[in-house]
């Protein structure tokens, strides 16, 4: 079955389309072992209505490899109905290869505010805080072209929660703008030091994230 699914998914190999076979094959997405689920998810078309239920099940699978394949499939499906579940994956599974797949799939489907709200909740996780802040800054702020990004995870637990709360308030304030797919200008007064992990008494200018801009400057500015 793995060989069949890999052949079906290989676009360089000509084969006849068998709609009935494809529909029956979706049972493996829900009931097969992990390696078979992954192969089926990568081979089967996800645009059909009968794909929705098995794909939802795969996005909630216990195997992270299956979840990653399901995220990729959801991104290819073009179905916005998967956005909430993809955002839940971003928020709850902090394994990088899964989280990246879920993020990319959600972006491909046009996710906006729900995705940034999910990343906001990731900030409190020490190992994922910098990644969350980088996504949030790039996704919601008008940062000019960047050559590189930097960051550190020196923030205390208390500071991480404060940073999260700052982002929560920021997203509420700019909800309508962000829902339209727009970004907030960097000169907006609502962009406080807390959004980049600085401004706290212990490290007033030690930014948790920095962006090296294409014009040679840094944002936030080093002080």
Walkthrough of the structure:
There is one protein chain. The chain has helices at 2-9, 19-25, 27-31, 34-43, 52-59, 64-77, 83-92, 96-108, 113-122, 129-140, 157-173, 175-179, and strands spanning 146-151, 209-213, 218-219. By secondary structure, it is mainly α. It folds into two domains: 1-111, Alpha Horseshoe (Leucine-rich Repeat Variant); 127-223, no CATH class. Strand 2 and strand 3 form a beta hairpin. Helix 4 runs parallel beside helix 6 (64-77), helix 7 (83-92) packs parallel to helix 9 (113-122) and helix 9 runs antiparallel to helix 11 (157-173).
- CATH level-four homologous superfamily name of the largest domain: Leucine-rich Repeat Variant
What integer is the average pLDDT? 89
H/E topology pattern: HHHHHHHHHHEHHEE
CATH fold-level label of the largest domain: Leucine-rich Repeat Variant
Can you tell me the overall shape? elongated
* CATH architecture descriptor text of the largest domain: Alpha Horseshoe
- Tally of individual domains: 2
Quick tags:
223 residues; mainly alpha; Leucine-rich Repeat Variant; 2 domains; 53% helix; elongated
Task: Briefly summarize what is shown.
With 223 residues, the protein is mainly α. The chain has twelve helices and three strands.
Secondary structure elements and pairings:
Layout: H1 2-9, H2 19-25, H3 27-31, H4 34-43, H5 52-59, H6 64-77, H7 83-92, H8 96-108, H9 113-122, H10 129-140, E1 146-151, H11 157-173, H12 175-179, E2 209-213, E3 218-219
Helix pairs in contact: 1-4, 4-6, 5-6, 6-8, 7-8, 7-9, 9-10, 9-11
């Amino acid at each position: 079955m793995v060989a069949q699914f890999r052949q079906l998914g290989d676009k360089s190999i000509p084969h006849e389309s068998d709609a009935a076979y494809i529909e029956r094959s979706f049972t493996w997405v829900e009931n097969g072992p992990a390696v078979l689920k992954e192969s089926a998810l990568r081979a089967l078309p996800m645009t059909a209505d009968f794909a929705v239920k098995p794909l939802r099940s795969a996005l909630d699978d216990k195997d992270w490899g299956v979840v990653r394949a399901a995220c990729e499939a959801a991104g290819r499906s073009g179905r916005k109905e998967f956005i909430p579940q993809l955002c839940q994956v971003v928020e709850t599974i902090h394994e990088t290869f899964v989280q990246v797949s879920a993020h990319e799939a959600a972006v491909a489907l046009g996710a906006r505010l729900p995705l940034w709200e999910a990343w906001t909740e990731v900030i409190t996780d020490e190992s994922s805080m910098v990644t969350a802040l980088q996504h949030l800054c790039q996704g919601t702020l008008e940062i000019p072209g960047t050559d590189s990004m930097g960051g550190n995870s020196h923030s205390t637990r208390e500071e991480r929660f404060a940073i999260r709360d700052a982002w929560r308030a920021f997203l509420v304030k700019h909800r309508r703008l962000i829902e339209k797919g727009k970004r907030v200008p960097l000169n907006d007064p609502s962009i406080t030091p807390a959004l980049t992990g600085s401004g706290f008494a212990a490290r007033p200018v030690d930014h948790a994230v920095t962006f090296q801009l294409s014009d040679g400057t840094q944002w936030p500015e080093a002080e």
